[in-house]
Amino acid sequence: MRKPNQTELILTIAMTLVVFLFNILPPLFTGLPLWPMFLSVAFFFLIAHGDIKKIPSVLVSGVAGIAIAWGMFSGMEGLTPLLGERYALWICLGIALALIIVGGTALPFALNNITFAYLIMGAAELVSGLHINGLEAVMSLPGHASYNMLAEAATWAAVNLVGGVLMCLGCGLTMRGVLKKFGANAHT
Fold first, then answer.
1. DSSP of 82-140, one letter per residue?
2. pTM to 2 decimal places
3. Sequence-distant (≥ 6) Cβ neighbours of residue 84 within 8 angstroms
4. Which DSSP symbol is given to 4?
5. What's the CA gap between 162 and 160, in Å, rounded?
């Protein structure tokens, strides 16, 4: 393991501070779920490699994944009484996957690996929010309509857009500033 140079050390400390602040400040002011914002910044670094110009694609892909998760569950809710749980799931999952995989060839800006990750997380959150263990229970649960899937998905999309912009820009501009001031020779 090599010793980090001065720029790498300063960059690491600065980024840690920015991410730390984004972990402690929003919960002081809001009770909103913050996972969409944190996924955005993870993909900003993992896939966009910290390129500020790619923030719109990261955020749009996240919103698309959340929308597809909501659409998948809404479709299952409508199809389960007609086709049963298994076939409703298969049909809706097939449509969701086709949207991302086939649609990604035409719209890679919005339909890509990030979209798929948000679909998975959104679906997990929807299942969790419905407090059930099986899809059949979702469709037959008498009070399940009180859990507003659309409102939840809209909240996640808003947190992704607003929080994601703030956090990605905060990290990206911090990284840019450190590299400009201390040299862009860091091996990051």
1. HH-HHHHHHHHHHHHHHHHHTHHHH-TTTSSHHHHHHHHHHHHHHHHHHT-SSHHHHHH
2. 0.86
3. none
4. P
5. 6
| 3-class SS of residue 30 | coil
Nearest residue to 89 via CA among 103, 101, 73, 100: 73
Q: Write a three-state SS string for 129-141.
A: HHCCCCHHHHHHC
The single residue listed with the structure tokens 């929010």 is: 129
Tokens of 129: 């929010």
pLDDT digits (tens, 9 = 90+) for 127-168: 877 654 444 445 544 445 556 888 899 999 999 999 999 999
d(CA 72, CA 180) in angstroms, rounded, equals 45
Distance of alpha carbon 67 from alpha carbon 88, whole angstroms: 18
Q: Rounded to 10 degrees, what is the CA torsion of 115, 174, 4, 58?
A: 10
